[in-house]
Write a structure and sequence with these properties.
Blueprint: E1 2-5, E2 17-21, E3 27-31, H1 40-50, H2 53-57, E4 60-66, E5 74-75, H3 76-87, E6 93-103, E7 106-118, E8 124-137, E9 143-148
Parallel strand pairs: 4-9
Antiparallel strand pairs: 1-6, 2-3, 4-5, 6-7, 7-8, 8-9
Length: about 170
């Protein structure tokens, strides 16, 4: 079992990059894949911030689980729809990897994250959490999320436009 504590932003020099259409037809440069478990959050953030839902979906294994609210895990198209709703806010996510605990091809990632800014309707939005995520190395050697639990053990509702439902 390995325990690595990371308190800085993940360096990009070890990661490949790919060009992908960003929002409004712009070309954005993103990390191609995570070669190490500690790279998964940075790859997620770059793809999330690109606005490219298809690129973001590649950070997850096919059978991955997202827990947008405690007790409500989603998979497949519902997972991607939940992430899409957050991307539609048009606000960037900032991630900071706090800890990595790995054993073989499986890793537990503890990640602080924040989405902050002015939403599409002019409202101030601030959502943050500490994720407890599981990533796994696939047969291709790349690491992807198996379980994405953005709020960890904390219960929080995300603000939406005029409703009490989660933004996910």
């Amino acid at each position: 079992m390995t325990n690595r504590s990371v308190s800085h932003e993940i360096a990009s020099e070890r990661m490949g990059h790919l060009g992908s259409p960003g929002t409004e037809g712009r070309l954005s440069i993103m990390r191609a894949w995570a070669d190490r478990p500690e790279e998964v959050p940075a790859v997620f953030a770059e793809r999330f911030n690109s606005g490219d839902a298809a690129a973001l979906s590649q950070v997850y294994e096919e059978t991955a689980v997202l827990v947008p609210q405690p007790g409500t895990p989603v998979t497949g198209p519902n997972l991607h729809a939940a992430n899409g709703r957050l991307q539609e806010l048009g606000l960037p996510i900032v991630v900071r990897l706090r800890h990595v605990y790995s054993s073989g091809d499986v890793a537990l990632l503890i990640v602080d994250w924040v989405i902050d800014g002015t939403g599409p309707e002019g409202q101030a939005l601030h959502v943050e959490g500490t994720a407890t995520d599981i990533a796994r190395r696939g047969p291709d050697g790349r690491w992807r999320y198996v379980i994405d639990n953005p709020f960890g053990t904390r219960v929080q509702q995300l603000p939406t436009q005029g409703t009490r439902k989660s933004a996910f």
